[in-house]
Amino acid sequence: MQLGGQTALVTGATGGIGAAIARALHARGARVLLSGRRAEVLDELQASLGDRAEALPADLAERDGPARLAEAAGAVDVLVANAALPASGRLEEFEPEEIDRALDVNLRAPVQLARAVLPGMLERGRGHLVFVSSLSGKAASPRSGI
């Protein structure tokens, strides 16, 4: 995949995997839009990457968070939906708000972001959607109710 001149939006860029993905895309020539909740961590990553990197802080648990992020990002050629909240524990120990927040960040936000950037990709005749997930989605394990 040729990434020179392409714009990649990476959610969850404040974490280990997200930051590594952002660095790899940048090294391959992409303009990288870094998203996460912790602006100071995004700023550090942006500074370490230098040119072709921009920090776009966003909380994807907020109802309009994905739409605001998509609008701020503009034309996106590669969406890497990597942001996630841990949802480990016994189901009965979760408060309803915790369940909603986990589902908002881990499921609703990636779908909403894909929906928002897809029309531009279709119009340009190119684009990639990458959804990062956990093995917990494939195989059940103890205390992984959500």
What is the CATH superfamily? Answer: NAD(P)-binding Rossmann-like Domain
What is the N-to-C order of secondary-structure elements (H for helix, E for strand)?
Answer: EHEHEHEHE
In which range does the helix fraction lie?
40-55%
> Structural class of the helices, strands and pairings?
alpha/beta
Reported CATH architecture: 3-Layer(aba) Sandwich
Strands, total number: 5
* Total count of domains: 1
* Strand arrangement across the biggest beta sheet: 3-2-1-4-5
Q: What would the average pLDDT be, to the nearest integer?
A: 93
Rg, alpha carbons: 16 Å
CATH class, named Alpha Beta
Explain how this protein is built:
The chain is of the alpha/beta class and 146 residues long. It has one domain: Rossmann fold, CATH 3.40.50. The chain is 42% helix and 13% strand. The chain is built from four helices and five strands. It has a five-stranded parallel beta sheet with strand order 3-2-1-4-5, sandwiched between helices. Helix 2 links the parallel strand 2 and strand 3. Helix 3 packs parallel to helix 4. The longest helix has 29 residues. It is globular and about 50 Å long. The mean pLDDT is 93.
